[in-house]
Amino acid sequence: MAHKGKVWKFGANIDTDAILPAFYLNLTDPGKLALHCFETNNPDFCLNSHEGDFIVADANFGCGSSREHAPMAIKAKGIHCIIAASFARIFFRNAFNVGLPVIESLEAAEKIGAGHEISVNIKKGEIRNFTTRETYRCEPLPDNMLSVLQDGGLIPHLLAKKNTQ
Amino acid sequence: MGMTITEKILAKGAGLDEVHPGQLIMCEVDVALGSDPTAPLAIEQFKKAGGQSVFHKDKVVMIPDHFAPNKDILSAEKCKILREFSRDQDLKHYYELGEMGIQHVLLPEKGIVLSGHFAVGADSHTCTYGALGAFATGIGSTDLAAVMLEGRLWFKVPASMKLIYSGKLPKWVGGKDLILHTIGKIGVDGALYRAMEFHGDAIEELCMDGRFTMANMAVEAGAKNGIFHVDTKTTAYLQDRTESAYKVFTSDLDADYVETIEFDVSAIEPQVACPHLPSNVVGLSELGEISIDQSLIGSCTNGRISDMREAADVLKGNKRDPRVRLIIIPGSPKVWRQANNEGLFDIFMDAGAVISTPTCGPCLGGHMGVLAGGERSIATTNRNFVGRMGHPESEVYLSNPAVAAASAILGKIGGPSELGLK
Fold first, then answer.
1. The complex's ipTM?
2. Which DSSP helix (H) or strand (E) runs through B396?
3. Which CATH superfamily is domain A2-164 in?
4. Which residues in chain A are contacts of B138 at CB distance < 8 A?
5. Contacting residues of A for B74, CB less than 8 Å apart
6. Domain B272-419, CATH
7. What's the pLDDT tens digit per position in B358-403?
8. Which of B26, B33, B44, B45 to mutate to probe the A interface, most A CBs <10 Å?
9. Which residues in chain A have Cβ-Cβ distances shorter than 8 Å to B45?
10. The pLDDT of residue B422
11. Which of A9, B4, B90, B299 has a 20 to 30 A CA-CA distance from B335?
């Protein structure tokens, strides 16, 4: 049974300064970064999002700087997965590298609303919306990318590979 | 089918005869760059992965520039991590205060990135080096850790788009205006995942500094890289900075472009990006009356000697409006010294400016000119997102150096023509 969670909805071009303002870049502890995630851009999310919630956004999520602190903060906040119409490319790489699942789906981004309850099956490429009883397709992730996520990011993945060799 | 300049450099990096858009490849890198906000995380990951020594001590570059000179204790700790790692690893290219400049001003100046290079950096504006005919792109800290370990990284070959600029550039219109105009037309995701390839007779007329400005902001359109072809201006620039051999790549005539856009630059006036997106661009004449509290001239976008001269041309004999703080940040010690030797500092100080040591500082709300709530700055920087330069209720307008200088004098956003300058 795939994990079910509540959706926080964001618009287009959510930049990394909105996710985590630059003056927190000196923090590297994920727990501390989580405290400031969307602090000024969306204080409601910052205060009230829960472990297992989802973010659904329009195009170009994570544009701007290369700061890995941004996906780190979202992951530490407990967000299960981000679905967006598209992602800025550095953010997309960084998210996988820190073990945060990100999925592109224009249809899901358009049809899923704030507060909807959804689940995602990344392996099958399927997004289920329990609020509207719809199902959306997305590109299934290849096994090598899935194992990066399962290991919790690129470095833990490389270490796990090393240990099994 | 022929290949674009970007595809050729990626093919070389991957050791392949040819590559095509969408292909996943593993590339050897020539330069891997880190700075104080991103490198400490990369160093932590490098050590976690069991890293002992970096793949090549001349190819890993560390620059403490964002919050340096150390703005507070936390910044001091981060810069210390860079410094100690660079010493432990015996890195050739670590630059301490006095030699340190804003990384994307410093690396080309020092001849560290050359034409044909494959450069990555844990800073989104690494794409600046495309002005040299290099492939350069931003990555995150974990990717930088992987590169420091192995000297290579996986990439998806981007589709290329061709941007052609024709006509004569009007006075006070330069690289900043061309790239702002372009982002205004295509949007902040108009080049998402793509390579932006810059062409046209107006580009040939543009000085190297203007090309750095344009390549720098390719990421603001979502691009993976921005790239220029090597010409006599490029080779003259490199001649003064390196004795190393470099390779020149050229797009084939039958190369494939996903999109081609043409611009008549003779019709472009100085451009201004309004809050809160770099694509929110209007011509200066359409802007209306916008009073300002601060004018910032500098950054990896416009902190080079041509930018300093352009600002001086406007500031000469003028005085800033008493309500405006004018902050000028030459991008490297070389730019600083040159501006000083050319007498530009007298012009700046007579105009009421403060001149800072090189740093990224205020561009990302770090230090040396952070904005308070309700304040507004004109800036020659690259981003105007909410809270970018400080308080979430402050505002940033982006422009070229001449407009930022003129605005400081006028007390509101305006151009040199409003000061009677031709």
1. 0.95
2. strand B395-398
3. Aconitase, domain 4 (3.20.19.10)
4. 66, 90
5. 26-27
6. 3.30.499.10
7. 999 999 999 999 999 999 999 999 999 999 999 999 999 999 999 9
8. B45
9. 155
10. 85
11. B90
